[in-house]
Amino acid sequence: MEQSENRKLRKARKRVEALKGFYQHLLIFILVNVLIFIVRSRVLEFIQNDSPTKNFMEWVDWNILFVPLFWGIGLLFHAAKVYQFKFPFLKNWEERQLNKYMNED
Fold this sequence. Notes:
4 helices, elongated, 87% helix, mainly alpha
């Protein structure tokens, strides 16, 4: 009985640590991206009006958009792992692979 309680406690602690890690990741994501957009709008404002730097500003704009996009995708995968969301296509793939290897033996 005590052993199963210890196992449950370890599992619960592991889950809480995973949630804490996700919330930290989310907070850093929000803070960094807000900071990036503030820097873009305030600090780089003086460059925007120069015609030779127009290409540079377009490059900066695209990169500023890509950071939250790709980081957000990574954050979604982190959330899926923490909240134990199983993608249906992965579950089907796992079942097919299990059946395949079971039939081989």
